Amino acid sequence: MSSESPDGGLAAYFGFARRGTSPAEEKLTDMKRRKTIRRLWTGLGIVVGAVLFNYSLGVVGFSLAELFTQIAFFIEALYEYFPPTTYYGVPFVDVMQYVEFMIEENLVQASLVTVSIAFAGSILGLPLALFFGVMASERVVPYPFNFMFRATMSFIRAIPALVWVLILIPLGGVTPFTATLAIMIDTAGYLGRLFTDELEEIADGPIEGIRSTGANKPQIVSFGMLSQVFRQFIAWIAFDLEHNVRVAIGLGLIGAGGLGLELDIQRKTFNYTEMMACIILILLLAGSVELLSQRVRSYLRDDEDVETTGFITAVLRAPKKIIASTAGRRE
Amino acid sequence: MSTLKVEHLTKEYGDVTAVDDVSFEIEDEFVVLLGESGAGKSTLLRCINGLTEPTSGSITLDGDPLSGSRAEVGMIFQQHNLVEGVSAYLNALNGSLEHASTVESLFQWQDRSDKLRALEALETVGLLDEAHQRVAQMSGGQQQRVGISRALVQDPSLLLADEPVASLDPSSAETVMDYLKKAASQHEVTALVSLHQVNIAAHFGERFIGLHDGQLLFDVGPDELTPELIDQLYGSVETVGLAAQNDDTAAHEHGATGDGPLVDDAPTDHGSTDGETADDDEGRRVEA
After folding, report:
1. Is the ipTM of this complex over 0.85?
2. Among A141, A205, A256, B56, which is least packed by CB within 10 angstroms?
């Protein structure tokens, strides 16, 4: 910095003093000034971010001291999460404890309940999604009217499935049945929206081609439009099924049955080993559903861009995806 | 065996008159529609097919007024307009949609005769063995032939084609035109085909209708299609003038194209003068 400018000083370094008169030198000064201004804005942004961060930490009562005092308890809990034992002298997690609990509590049955909630809910929601998705497309229903269907789907999506269960409690209590209804509604909103988006992107040519044969309106919609997106629809259904399995686990946590309910019970009774057994099963379940749905989708995708991911890579990537998606993010 | 009668047909888009008081009558012929891009060829065909409502004038087929799209009029599009994700057979079968109810067609409960007709139509265009293939996997020429078979399944009495070979290479273009003409004569339908390439038009056409700025410029038989007419149609395009003077080249090229009804010396390809068919290089531009 000090090697700069015997003849301009600091002002010239930051681009606020002219050093030469040739067009190139003037442009250089100009660009230095722009850079200085950009840096000032960046600095301001960092300061604002830091203030907001500090405020947020205050609101949630974040304290490092608390972490330090609690860390010992957490490490203690880890021994319960992952009970140590030795196999032939080699220390390892006592897997048998998990397995015993899984058999004892019949967690396989609980997993079946979770998958059933997701599957039944998806199938029940599918016709609704198809109806709303198609009717919300501007190509099927003219402009102001298609918005009625769009708005219905937006409304459904504005309320998370977790809250739908709460709303539906008078219908069937906090049970797998209510959870299934909630997933049905959720599917109508989400899958329907995906269908609509897919329909917006279809080509006009085939529609006109079908129209030219003298087909009636329902035939134009089915053969000119839906036949163009048939494969994509199947792929989205596979994706939504996968999403619904995760939702069903979440619904279990508030008491609607299945694996989530089992997890909640173990948490409330501080049985950390049993809780971890549930979590491991959730990982396996969500992971295998994801893998299955992904294979279906890549098989259905157009032949040109077949997914080349091998099985191992897919397995390695699955946990990351599961974490991302159970955190509530949709891919 | 059908007669298409167009009387005082006019179509306006806002201030633009795309088709301006056009009248003609065709009967059991293979008619080629010529004209620059924007001359109103597509609009005229779309009006006849019912994809566009004419502003005024009448269109009748065997005395019945035509309105709306219907199976009697088969249409072949430049971009074939097929459903690419499904098989050639299902695309051809779509031609029978009009006389099946929605439910019947959804579950493919069409009559056996309809299904056989779809396969026979594919046989006519030489694609019976490929009937199960997805259209997306086919070449441009094959796709266009599937388009022809769909129109044939409609069992039309009038066949329209809007620049059916404009996006094909010369060899595929000729194959497609061969099949189109064969299909029209086998099914004894009147055909109205718009084309850019004057040499292809001259080779296949039995009658020529020229449109310029939406108006009918000429309506002639093969003997009357002269270079002067083509000049009038396309204005003073330099390559056309050169080709008209350079009879040897033109005659030689026609010899190479085939042994069809030679129309004296049709000039070179005009397709290259507009953007739509820029990729359709026939390699026949005469060097100055």
Report:
1. no
2. B56
